[in-house]
Structure formats: C-alpha cells, structure tokens
Design goal:
Elements (H helix, E strand, L loop, with lengths): L4 H15 L53 E4 L11 H12 L5 E6 L1 H4 L2 H16 L3 E10 L2 E2 L3 H4 L6 H16 L7 E6 L1 H7 L4 H17 L8 E7 L11 H5 L4 E5 L14 H12 L4 E6 L11 H17 L4 E6 L7 H11 L6 H6 L14 H10 L5
Parallel strand pairs: 1-9, 2-3, 3-5, 5-6, 6-7, 7-8, 8-9
Antiparallel strand pairs: 3-4
Helix pairs in contact: 1-14, 6-8, 10-11, 11-14
C-alpha cells in the first residue's frame, strides 16, 4: 500500500537523493516480483478489488519461473528532455534514467509511416538493442492508427483496410520491425485507441476488423516472434470501448485486453482521480480470463486543461496502488511519458495529430511527463519511484 502524498513526497526526496538521477544497481534492472500484473479530486481509494491471487499456481497468468509469484512488467516510455531535434546525448541520459528505476520492460512504438524513415528505423534498432541487452522485456506497438490519426504511409491511407496492397505492405512492415528487435518481443500491439479511430470512421470498421485479425495472425506465426508472445488490439479504456459489445470481434482476436488509461484525453480535459479503483476493477471484469496490458497510462499536469502537479501525483500513486491490489490480473503497465514535451516538439506532435498547436489537446498530451521538458522532477517522479518499489520483492 502506498503512503499518503504529503508523507510520500518527504520520504521520496531521500529515495531520489540516494538513487541519484542516473542510479542503477550494478546487476541490471530491479526485478518486480509481484504475487500473482479534471483533476476531479477524490482520495484514490481502492474501491474493493480482487485481493491476492492464489499461490498454488492455478492462476492462468502465473509465470511458472517465478515459483508461484505473479510479476507485473513495468515500463516507462523513454522520450528525451529538451526541445527541437533530439541530441544523441539527450537519448543517452533518457535511457540511463529509465534504467535507474525499477522497470523490467521497455515499450517501443512506431507507425508504419515512421518505419519508412531511415533515421526512425535506425533509432528503433538502437533502442531495442540497448534495452534488450540490459535484460528488459520488449513490447512493440504498431501504430497503424493512433486515436483518430491514420499511421499508414500516404499512398496506402486512401486504399482502404481491405486492399491487398495494404495487407502486403503491412506484412512487410512487420518483417522490418521484427528485424530490429533482438530476440523479438513478448508483447505486440496493433494500434492505439483504435476505438476512437473507428468511431470517427464507422464505415471502415468491418474492413479494419478483417485487417487486424490478419495482422495479428501474421505476427503470431512470424518466425521472429518468440514462442508464447501475446498480441492484441489497443483500445482506450476511458472512452468506454472495452465495454462496447460491437468491439467483441477485435477483443476476441486478441490474447490480452490492451487499453490506454489516460483519463480525460478523449475530451482534452483532465479526468477525475476519484474513480481509479473502480476503473481498474472494471478492467479486470471486462478482461475475463485474459490478462490486462496497460499500453499507456498518464495524467496531465497542465492547469490549462484542469490538471495539476498535485493531481498528477495522486494519479500515479492511486493507479499503481490499485494495480498492486489486483496484480494477479495485470501483465504489463507502461507509463507515458518520462518528460513533458517542449514547445517545438509539442507543436510537431499536435500538427501530426491534426489538432491546434495552442489548443487543449496539445496542452493535455504535452504535459504527461513525470519530469519537465527541462529535466526537472515533478512531484509525480518520486511518487513513481516509490510506487514502483512496492512491486519489488518483500
């Protein structure tokens, strides 16, 4: 159980000082062995929960190698501090900061359009090699869609999901991405917030479902996919998509329930922190006998859209606590993102998504970092360090 915020902040200052910004234990990443994976206020209470998982090995998501314990894979999207073009030195610092935390995994994400860029393709290989060589479990997301945005290269975007040309090109994209992942990856996700895209393009739903099923099947059977790798289609939780029976086909085709949990993103207004326990309970209920993967979690600190650093800290504390209490059902949790986006990078992302650079959506997504764009810790950063440590061995 996490300690209250005001106590946590004082205690975590000592933790941060002890660790240092680039701290790392010489033996590699800390292992998270866990029994059985509007700034609307609220106290972040757990609202019930599943309790502890069984220790007799009967749980379907148990990792047999952990002697009846259930590990939750924790990761942080390692974007860089600063602004404008990424400096190689910033990338080194970002990677080292991530490795100084209690993470066991690294989530990598590219759109098919980005894979056509030699620089971005090279960076995928570099990131994957770095984290894999340090023992982290790799996860990969193909952002064929990201919310309402289409991630296909322009020549393909207008052909439709049922086009044989699109299917062939996306299989080639899978080949290319997997060739850059040392030893493959243990988790593969197709699309992020797919429900938002299909809600904005209802006529494409049937063709996208067929496309996604074929895509998942190709990844499962790929010779570079490790045996036992899980695949799934990414939904947005707070939009209500997982509860929508019309998405049953995509959910049934997935090995796990993959959701992003960024309250308020769909309205570009910070959501409530008072329903986190109930939300996590609902994830578990909807997932049924499938494990839950949180492809991204985050909360904005921008006051312009109703967020704050205090609310962001409470979100981190409460979400990690809620997952800890239901840890036998969660396989993977990824925190987006390490740093806020500077003005130039925020503007570039807003333009990519087709939203106003100075609008509420940009203010929301660019303030999700646990640290500022200049690299200064927000209160949410020591809260994350403390929360992650609760997953460590007793």
């Amino acid at each position: 159980m996490l300690v209250p915020s005001r106590v946590l902040f004082a205690a975590s200052v000592c933790l941060a000082a002890a660790l240092g910004p680039l701290a790392c234990d010489g033996g590699g990443p800390l292992l998270l062995y866990v029994p059985t994976d509007g700034a609307g206020g609220g106290d972040g209470s757990l609202d019930g929960g599943d309790g502890d998982g069984s220790l007799d090995g009967s749980d379907p998501f148990a990792d047999g190698g952990d002697a009846g314990l259930y590990p939750v894979l924790l990761s942080i999207t390692a974007n860089t501090a600063g602004d404008g073009p990424v400096d190689p030195g910033e990338l080194v610092v970002s990677r080292d900061v991530v490795m100084g935390t209690a993470v066991r995994a690294s989530l990598l994400r590219r759109s098919p359009r980005e894979l056509e860029d030699p620089t971005l393709l090279s960076s995928l290989g570099d990131d994957a090699a770095y984290f894999a060589s340090r023992g982290l479990v790799l996860s990969y997301t193909w952002s064929v869609v990201d919310g309402a945005s289409n991630g296909l290269p322009p020549p393909l975007a207008g052909l439709g999901w049922g086009s044989p040309v699109v299917a062939s090109a996306m299989r080639a994209s899978v080949d290319l991405a997997l060739s850059k992942l040392p030893g493959g990856a243990s988790y593969f996700v197709v699309g992020r917030d797919v429900d938002q895209y299909l809600s904005a393009h209802p006529s494409e739903r049937a063709s996208f479902e067929a496309f996604a099923k074929d895509f998942l099947g190709y990844v499962r059977a790929h010779p570079l996919s490790p045996k036992g790798a899980r695949v799934g289609v990414g939904f947005s939780f707070v939009s209500g998509a997982p509860k929508d029976a019309s998405f049953a086909t995509l959910f049934a085709a997935s090995d796990m329930m993959v959701v992003s949990y960024v309250p308020g993103l769909e309205k570009a207004t910070a959501g409530s922190t008072g329903t986190i326990g109930a939300d996590v309970d609902m994830m578990v209920e909807i997932a049924g006998d499938k494990p839950v993967m949180l492809e991204s979690i985050g909360y904005p600190s921008s006051v312009a859209i109703g967020g704050s650093e205090v609310a962001q800290t409470l979100f981190v504390e409460s979400t990690l606590s809620a997952i800890l209490a239901r840890r036998h059902r969660f396989a993977y949790v990824n925190v987006d993102m390490l740093y806020d986006l500077g003005l130039q990078r925020c503007a570039a992302l807003a333009m990519k998504k087709g939203v106003p650079v100075d609008g509420p959506y940009a203010a929301f997504i660019c303030s999700l970092g646990l640290r500022t764009a200049s690299g200064v810790d927000k209160p949410a950063w020591p809260a994350f360090l403390q929360g992650a440590s609760a997953f460590a061995p007793p």
